[in-house]
Amino acid sequence: MNHLYIPRAIIDNGPTSRLSNLGAVWLPLYHLSIMIFTVFNTLYTTGLSSILINIFSTASTAVVIYKAVGGRLGAVASILYGLNMYTVIHASSSYMAPLGSFLAIASLYYFEKHLENKSMKDLTKSSAYAILATLTRYEAWVTAVLLFTILLFYERERRLAIRIAYGITFMLGIALWIAYNYVIFRNPLQFVYHPSAGARGYYGVILGEMLNLLHANYLDIIMVVYVLAGPIFLLLLTALIIVLENKFNGLITAIIYASPLIFFLAEGPELIIVDHPLYFYFTLPFIIVLGFKGLEILLSKVSVRVFTAIIIVSLMIIFSLQAIHEYYMYNILRAELYKAYPLYTKNRAFVHAIRESWLKEGDIF
């Protein structure tokens, strides 16, 4: 609901209508994009003002996925993306992720094209999408910094001044947001120090986990990726083939498409997001592109029979991990229940009933 109210408050909030109503928690582009639609009461009250933007963003993401993968596999990848349950949920609601993921993956797609043909036109398109993406979702800041770094140190054939000039354009969105915070709130990092969680919550957890990778709950991460992407998750195992096939260029391609996946480090029962793939939807297009790029190379190397065998073995591994995960969570539940109900914990039916009630209430299990 906030994503509908905020843009309306900018232009139709009586004497307090002002740009500062954008606040400092969410990045501004999504709210600015739907702002004009909220003027119409029908679009505002029904939520269509945001759905229109998300439908456009979702369709555009499907087109980019098709182009990035290419051929028949590209068509299959874009169709699977559109049929994903979380894609349908986001396209028909006021979530900010569809616009952000479209802009971010478009930036990566044109950057990949630039690496292939050294076209400055593609580099310009990549930087333009990066600016917009970094004004939509904080996840895109990771990709923007990564592209800036690659441009600065990888493309040695261009003069350093040109690399720096183009690299800075990838950071303009971040600079604009910091400048807005300074002008409106007199604090360039207001989005960090805002009284609500803001960037300190989800993104602060990511930074903490990056400094302590052994602390991450990798079993939970695997399960969440599996729930989010379904069988497509298995295709991530083929991503290594991209590197083996194209050596250094393949490594760069794999890294840029895999960079948003770092946000899965926020997953875990002791963290703020618990087994909730909905919050990781931003990463779905990148998972699909990365997986299908690897699949394309794999199919050119092995027969259909061998590929089928690989998929079957992979599924067996996934289901085994899922069984281990369920057993692990069941034992945690028993330990928690033993503290509260020591006389009933040995009763499996009782434990199962409590677990089901917690699931309905949205608790951590």
Fold blueprint:
Elements: H1 2-11, H2 29-34, H3 41-46, H4 48-69, H5 71-83, H6 85-91, H7 97-117, H8 120-134, H9 139-153, H10 160-169, H11 172-185, H12 190-193, H13 202-210, H14 218-229, H15 232-235, H16 239-258, H17 284-299, H18 304-340, H19 348-360
Helix pairs in contact: 4-5, 4-7, 4-17, 5-17, 7-8, 7-9, 7-16, 8-9, 9-10, 14-18, 16-17
Mean pLDDT, nearest integer? 80
**Element string (H = helix, E = strand):** HHHHHHHHHHHHHHHHHHH
| Overall spatial form | globular
Quaternary structure state of the chains depicted = single chain
Number of E-state strands? 0
Report how far apart the termini are. Answer: 27 Å
Q: What structural category characterises the helix and strand content?
A: mainly alpha
Could you give a short account of the major beta sheet? none
Helix content: 55-70%
The helix count comes to: 19
Instruction: Report the β-strand fraction as a percent range.
Output: under 5%
Task: For the structure shown, list the relevant keywords.
disordered C terminus, 365 residues, globular, 0% strand, mainly alpha, 19 helices
Task: Write structural notes for this entry.
There is one protein chain. The protein is mostly helical. 70% of the residues lie in helices and 0% in strands. It has 19 helices and no strands. α8 (120-134) runs antiparallel to α9 (139-153). The model is unreliable at 361-365 (pLDDT under 50).
